[in-house]
């Protein structure tokens, strides 16, 4: 909840003052709205704004502020977290659009930006995104164990464990056998070390394949193939180069 409100406060601060003051309704302003609607008290421009947007609805002994157009209860700044959380859980964390639809149907004065801020700090949604995508999107031919190893890095930054933020996952495409290694960073050196460790224990595969390219070994020569994605940063290219050369050096040592 603290993270949500600190992000929200930062967002409100970044808004134009006039817009920011009415972006969300704090409890004090809510009480001011009730006073205007009940007793007609208040400053004239505030009264104008209140009469344009709000009406008073009596529920039992309570007087509640409703939006005129939507005919839904107004949610104050203080109630935002709990209300959005309830709606988001009701749609079973199914993303922004469903959450927004659920909110709009029932409440007034919850800005769309606030819903986006809420979702950005929802642990469950974050983990769902960060958690394993299928290790290979297209079928890969493999004829025997250790012919082709697919490698992938799983992002665990949202739930780190003792300084470990990544899991290196390697999988034999033929045997469907998997290995997993905890990593503190996803830089080339620690990744290469884990891969080498695996190759010392089992054999190196004929082909090591990752999202960023492949490193292929033939028995008569060592050859590195990198199919660089245009979106790769210079750092990623350097990392990939380091990884490729490290593994290639190993192949060279292993076969010659
Ligand atoms: Zn969620």
UniProtKB/TrEMBL annotation:
GO molecular function terms listed in the Swiss-Prot or TrEMBL record: nucleic acid binding
SUPFAM superfamilies: Ribonuclease H-like (SSF53098)
Coiled-coil intervals, chain numbering: none
PROSITE patterns: INTEGRASE
Residues in Integrase catalytic domain copies: 135-256
Domain of life: Eukaryota
InterPro entries xref list: Integrase_cat-core (IPR001584), RNaseH-like_sf (IPR012337), RNaseH_sf (IPR036397)
GO biological process, one term: DNA integration
Protein's name in the database: Integrase catalytic domain-containing protein
Taxonomic classification: Eukaryota, Metazoa, Spiralia, Gnathifera, Rotifera
């Amino acid at each position: 909840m603290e993270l949500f409100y600190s992000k929200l406060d930062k967002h409100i601060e970044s808004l134009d003052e006039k817009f920011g003051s009415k972006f969300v309704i704090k409890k004090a302003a809510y009480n001011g709205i009730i006073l205007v609607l009940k007793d007609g008290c208040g400053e004239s421009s505030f009264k104008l704004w209140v009469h344009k947007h709000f009406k008073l609805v009596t529920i039992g002994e309570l007087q509640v502020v409703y939006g005129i157009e939507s005919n839904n209860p107004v949610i104050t700044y203080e109630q935002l977290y709990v209300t959005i959380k309830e709606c988001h859980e009701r749609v079973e964390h199914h993303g922004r659009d469903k959450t927004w639809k659920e909110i709009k149907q029932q409440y007034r004065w919850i800005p769309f930006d606030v819903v986006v801020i809420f979702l950005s700090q929802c642990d469950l949604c974050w983990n769902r995104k960060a958690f394993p995508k299928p290790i290979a999107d297209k079928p890969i031919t493999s004829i025997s164990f250790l012919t082709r190893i697919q490698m992938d890095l799983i992002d665990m930054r949202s739930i780190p464990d003792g300084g470990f933020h990544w899991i290196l996952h390697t999988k034999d495409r033929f045997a469907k056998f998997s290995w997993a290694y905890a990593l503190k960073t996803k830089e080339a050196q620690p990744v290469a070390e884990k891969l080498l460790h695996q190759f010392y224990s089992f054999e190196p595969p004929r082909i090591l394949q990752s999202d960023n390219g492949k490193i292929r070994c033939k028995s008569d020569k060592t050859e590195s193939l990198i199919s660089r994605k245009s979106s790769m940063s210079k750092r990623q290219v350097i990392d990939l180069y380091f990884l490729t050369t490290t593994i290639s050096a190993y192949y060279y040592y292993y076969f010659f």
